């Protein structure tokens, strides 16, 4: 610590760095400067002077006190401080610190003098310049010793940090895993960094500044003030950034592995899958997909959508002059002109599918109507800006060749009148799906009965549908239906099940979800002596009794319960490929054990969803694995009695918590 001020006493010059007192006696005249080591000789005289001054001050205080007045006890209350004292205090410089530093320097000078065999007492004639040089050399030696000691302590602390878990975690996530010292030093500096609001010296210019959360670290440690931080940032702008380390483990790889398992990719990837993934990584280098089979092009389109790679620059890969099928699984980044370009480039287009087609507006439909494109399948998802008038024009112009129409998320732009238009202009329509629709009512549902060639029907309407409307539609078209999907039909009751039993004799897929009025007896009657062949796909999720006050009491047998579950497995178990009884919590343990007993055999069942069926146990899961040799995936979320079950090789169990997440891949 350097001080420019000095004081004199009895004709002797005393540097301020070597004494902690401020002399206020104006009678002291300055004298010639002397070496700091002279203080050893004059210290007794200086102390005697201070004691005499103190004694005179006390005598004056006693004389000023009035007679008869008791002296008050002092309470260490001091008067106003000088400007210099306030200035030093604001810079964290205290008298004690000055005193301690001076004592250390005196001791250091004495030890050096004794080692060199010199006499401590020095005459006044010694020049002040030689004294200052000796003091500066002693100060530098002390600073060097302090720095070396500090570096040794820092090195020891860094070595300790390298053995901690925090260092290993930081190293695993760091870009450059080879620089261990840099990582450990960063942790050390983070632990010893001043908190925001504290005063710190800049590591470059040594100016004092207030630490903020945005203060940068210096190249050799410490923090930088704002001007130095800006200069350092400018210097680093031209330097190349470190390349991120290729991730070999951690959260990202675990998520990718879980996604791969849920997609059904178990074991070694096929050559076609590897080629498709390589293409997705180098999409900027591809000019066309060539003559790839349609299923591989569809797989590429799915991967592009999953990675958000489908954009105006990559769309030409899927729209070529000879293209007949275009599947867009994520069109959120495509504009009006991009959709128009598809119909410009591909005049032979027959099957068109676009999900998240937000920009498919009236202008795009106008261009499509101006072309001679004979579409056989039209799938549009999320085109809520397309007006119902344009839908009517499209159905009237292209309805003769149309065999499939699937409309999702159209808000209030596709209603009952559109269904009537379909019945008039689409005589060959075989597939109709209308989901997340806000305009269609019972009138439109009844109008579906006029579609005589219909084979596949799927409905999910926002308006509550009366069971009578569904029954009347099924009585007309049920005989030709191969798939029937009624999603979220809370008002559907046993009359709908009875209509299915009576009129639907060719179904391979049946989905009825979230019914609050269908009963176990209705399901039992449906599957008992049903003339329909065994189903391949059955989804009855959330067909259960709903009562928050008595959730486990079901006196009326609402929903799919034990008897209905036995009946459906007896009817369709031999051909069933996919079964979903999610949240059908009233199926008893005895029913599961009876259905999957040691004599049961379901050769085609590959995917089973029994989440939130509370009676499922480890024993029942083991019975399922034994009775279903082709089983690939079982979902058991919410089955709290499933704790420790052995999963066969090639089977994925989803929903049981473990160290890797919620997915267990069989290894037995």
Write a brief caption for the model.
The chain has 668 residues and is an alpha/beta fold. It contains 21 helices and 18 strands. Strand 15, helix 21 and strand 16 form a beta-alpha-beta unit.
Provide structural commentary:
The protein is built from 21 helices and 18 strands. By secondary structure, it is an alpha/beta fold. Among the domains are: 1-53 and 90-161, no CATH class; 163-225, no CATH class. Helix 17 (494-503) links the parallel strand 11 and strand 12. It holds the Pfam family zf_Tbcl_Rhp7. Residues 328-546 form the F-box/LRR-repeat protein 15-like leucin rich repeat domain. InterPro entries: FBXL15_LRR (IPR057207), Leu-rich_rpt_Cys-con_subtyp (IPR006553), LRR_dom_sf (IPR032675), Znf_Tbcl_Rhp7 (IPR056451).
Number of helices: 21
Oligomeric state as shown: single chain
Strand fraction equals 5-15%
What do the pLDDT scores average to? 82
Biggest beta sheet summary? 14 strands, mixed
Strands side by side in the biggest sheet: 5-6-7-8-9-10-11-12-13-14-15-16-17-18
Helical content (DSSP H or I, runs of 4+): 25-40%
Q: Write down the Rg.
A: 44 Å
Number of strands: 18
Low-confidence stretches: 1-43, 45-50, 60-74, 118-129
Structural class, by secondary structure, is alpha/beta
C-alpha termini separation: 73 Å
Backbone shape: elongated
List keywords for this structure.
alpha/beta, 12% strand, single chain, elongated, 668 residues, Znf_Tbcl_Rhp7, two-stranded antiparallel sheet
């Amino acid at each position: 610590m350097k001080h420019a001020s000095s004081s004199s006493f009895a004709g002797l010059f005393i540097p301020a760095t070597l004494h902690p007192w401020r002399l206020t006696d104006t009678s002291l005249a300055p004298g010639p400067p002397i070496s700091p080591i002279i203080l050893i000789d004059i210290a007794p005289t200086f102390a005697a002077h201070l004691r005499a001054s103190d004694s005179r001050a006390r005598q004056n205080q006693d004389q000023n006190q009035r007679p008869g007045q008791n002296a008050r006890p002092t309470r260490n209350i001091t008067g106003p401080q000088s400007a210099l004292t306030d200035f030093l205090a604001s810079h964290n410089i205290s008298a004690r610190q000055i005193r301690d530093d001076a004592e250390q320097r005196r001791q250091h000078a004495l030890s050096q003098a004794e080692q060199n065999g010199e006499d401590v007492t020095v005459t006044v004639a010694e020049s002040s310049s030689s004294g200052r040089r000796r003091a500066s050399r002693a100060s530098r030696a002390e600073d060097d010793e302090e720095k070396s000691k500090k570096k040794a302590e820092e090195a020891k602390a860094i070595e300790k940090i390298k053995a901690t878990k925090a260092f290993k975690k930081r190293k695993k996530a760091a870009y450059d895993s080879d620089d261990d010292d840099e990582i450990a030093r960063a942790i050390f500096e983070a632990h010893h960094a001043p908190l925001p609001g504290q005063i710190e010296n800049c590591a470059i210019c040594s100016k004092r500044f207030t630490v903020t959360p945005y203060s940068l670290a210096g190249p050799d440690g410490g923090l930088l003030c704002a001007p130095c931080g800006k200069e350092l940032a400018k210097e680093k702008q031209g330097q190349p950034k470190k390349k991120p380390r290729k991730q070999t483990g951690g959260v990202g790889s675990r998520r990718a592995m879980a996604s791969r398992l849920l997609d059904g990719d178990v074991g070694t990837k096929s050559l076609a899958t590897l080629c498709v993934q390589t293409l997705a990584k180098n999409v900027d280098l591809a000019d066309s997909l060539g003559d790839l089979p349609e299923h591989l092009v569809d797989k590429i389109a799915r991967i592009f959508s999953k990675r958000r790679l489908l954009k105006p620059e990559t769309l030409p890969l899927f729209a070529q002059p000879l293209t007949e099928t275009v599947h867009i699984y994520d069109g959120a980044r495509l504009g009006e002109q991009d959709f128009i370009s598809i119909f410009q480039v591909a005049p032979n287009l027959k099957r068109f599918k676009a999900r998240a087609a937000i920009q498919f507006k009236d202008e795009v439909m106008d261009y499509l109507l101006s072309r001679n494109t004979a579409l056989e399948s039209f799938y549009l998802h999320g085109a809520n800006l397309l007006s119902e008038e344009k839908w009517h024009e499209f159905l009237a112009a292209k309805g003769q060749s149309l065999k499939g129409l699937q409309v999702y998320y159209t808000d209030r732009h596709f209603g009952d009148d559109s269904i009537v238009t379909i019945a008039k202009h689409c005589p060959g329509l075989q597939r109709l799906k209308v989901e997340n629709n806000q305009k269609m009512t019972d009138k439109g549902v009844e109008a579906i009965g006029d579609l005589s060639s219909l084979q596949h029907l799927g409905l999910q309407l926002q308006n509550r549908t009366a069971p009578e409307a569904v029954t009347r539609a099924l009585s007309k078209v049920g005989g030709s239906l191969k798939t029937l999907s009624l999603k979220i039909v809370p008002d559907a009751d046993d009359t709908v099940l009875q209509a299915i039993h009576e009129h639907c004799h060719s179904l391979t897929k049946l989905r009825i979800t979230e019914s609050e009025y269908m009963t176990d007896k209705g399901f039992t009657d449906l599957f008992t002596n049903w003339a329909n062949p065994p189903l391949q796909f059955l989804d009855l999720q959330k067909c259960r009794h709903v009562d928050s006050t008595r959730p486990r009491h079901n006196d009326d047998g609402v929903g799919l319960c034990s008897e209905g579950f036995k009946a459906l497995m007896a009817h369709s178990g031999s051909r069933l490929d996919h079964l979903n009884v999610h949240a059908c919590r009233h199926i008893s343990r005895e029913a599961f054990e009876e259905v999957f007993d040691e004599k049961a055999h379901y050769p085609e069942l590959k995917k089973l969803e029994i989440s939130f069926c509370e009676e499922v146990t480890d024993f029942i899961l083991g019975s399922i694995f034994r009775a279903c040799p082709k089983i690939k995936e079982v979902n058991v979320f919410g089955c709290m009695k499933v704790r420790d079950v052995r999963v066969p090789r090639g089977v994925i169990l989803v929903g049981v918590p473990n160290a890797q997440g919620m997915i267990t891949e069989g290894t037995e």
